[in-house]
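Minimal example, chain plus iron/sulfur cluster.
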Amino acid sequence: MERWRGFISSVPLHSGMPHVVTSPCVNHKYQECVAVCPVEAFRELDTYLVIDPDECIDCGACIPECPVEAIFPDTEVPAGEEAWIDRNAEEAADAPVAEGDSPVLGD
Ligand code: SF4
């Protein structure tokens, strides 16, 4: 075990702080975020996307891609949007992987 100690401490662990989609996505469903996600973490519902917290690696690549600024680390979700943290986790469980090719719903 001792010989592994340095190696293990150098391995980045998942922070447990995934990114979440919040209410500005609703009724827009822009999907630029899907294209940059390296782990296919986005899930698609009828009128918005959510992020599966078990897949998200917290890279942050999706944040600047969102035209309506709907994506935040779960530690930085704006006031009033906190319910979206659980909502992403719960709704991602049964939703299909977003392919990024669905029609945008509206500007
Ligand atoms: S933070 Fe990175 S891994 Fe997580 S959903 Fe956005 S692009 Fe995907």
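Residues 19, 36-37, 39, 41, 51, 56-62 surround iron/sulfur cluster (CB under 6 Å). The CA atoms of residues 1 and 7 lie 10 Å apart.
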